[in-house]
Amino acid sequence: MNKIAIIYNQTAGRSIQVDGVLKFLDYLLQEACPDVHIYPTCTPDAAEWLAIKACELEVDIIVAVGGDGTLNQVINGMMKSAFHPLLAIYPTGSVNDFASALDIPKQPEIFADMLIKGKKRKVDLGEVNGSYFVNVAAAGAFTYLAHEVSKDAKKQWGRFAYYVKGFLKIPSELEKSYRMNFVIDGVKESYDTNFFLLSNSFSIGGYNYANPYADIQDGLMDLIIVEKLNALEIVDVLTKLVAEDHVNHPKVHYKQLKSVDISLDEPLILDLDGEESYPFPVTINVVHRAIEIIVP
Ligand SMILES: [Mg+2]
């Protein structure tokens, strides 16, 4: 490792990231002495162009410091660049599902050790209209909560802010349903849905078994469609969710796929890694083993 770029989101999560960065950097400099470039993000969407800059410098490793939102921007910057460094994720955001699925350590010394001695793993990405996502594409009930929870609440309360907001909204959210048309690897299906999740990893919203069979390097994304549920069915699905058996509920449809078109008649926005992206209709494709990540 000669050259390393650290892109850190100054606003992600609570104020632990600067401390953590200084600690793993201190350890790294003692052990490996790389040429270090530090890029703090000055605006909310700066991580993408900072990643492009780091790729132009042909660094060996980009370390994305932040949550899934920062990671999303960094991989988008990398995918726009001809040169692809190795990627490492130092998880400090309020939602770190992808890092959690990869079992990335948060302790600075152990993280620095991983940078020096860790293994490399190629992972899949999802692609929509030339934008990439690393963990999840979703739409319907609940998915917009990530945008509704204010930045201040996220900083102060972290994941708890989502849960409170979600809990307060459950009855009204599940009354809504959306008639969605899916073309899954060429096969048409339509459902009255509460929501769908298309994920790369098994971890969503801090829950490690949300999409239990998802594998981040098998070239497939795992789709969960939840049909409109009544009150009894909600209890049933939640009970099965705890038992990691929700994908076998008759109102839950589970598919593994390479490509999916999704359309509906009413206006709705697709959410990518917790941020609003494109209005429907959308076509989502899997990009097999697009990025190489350092893992323990
Ligand atoms: Mg997969």
Report the mean per-residue pLDDT as an integer: 88
Do you know the CATH topology of the largest domain?
Tumour Suppressor Smad4
The helix/strand order is EHEHEHEHHEEEHHHEEEHEEEEE
Domain module tally = 2
Number of helices: 9
Helix/sheet category:
alpha+beta
Rg, Cα atoms, Å: 19 Å
Described by strand count, sense and barrel closure, the largest sheet is: 11 strands, antiparallel
- What molecules are bound to this protein? magnesium ion
Shape: globular
Our measurement of the CA-to-CA distance between the termini, rounded to an integer number of angstroms, reads: 16 Å
Reading off the top of the CATH hierarchy, the class of the largest domain is best stated as Mainly Beta
Count all strands and give the number: 15
Q: Uncertain spans, ≥5 residues at pLDDT below 50?
A: none
Q: Report helical residue fraction.
A: 25-40%
CATH architecture of the largest domain: Sandwich
Beta content comes to: 35-45%
Task: Briefly summarize what is shown.
The protein is α+β, with helices and mostly antiparallel strands and 296 residues long. It has nine helices and 15 strands.
How would you explain this protein's 3D organization?
The protein has 2 domains: 3-117, Rossmann fold (3-Layer(aba) Sandwich), CATH 3.40.50.10330; 136-285, Tumour Suppressor Smad4. Helix content is 31%, strand content 36%. It is globular and about 60 Å long. The protein has 9 helices and 15 strands. The longest helix has 17 residues, at 159-175. The protein starts with a strand and ends with a strand. The structure holds magnesium ion. The site of magnesium ion has 8 residues, from loops.
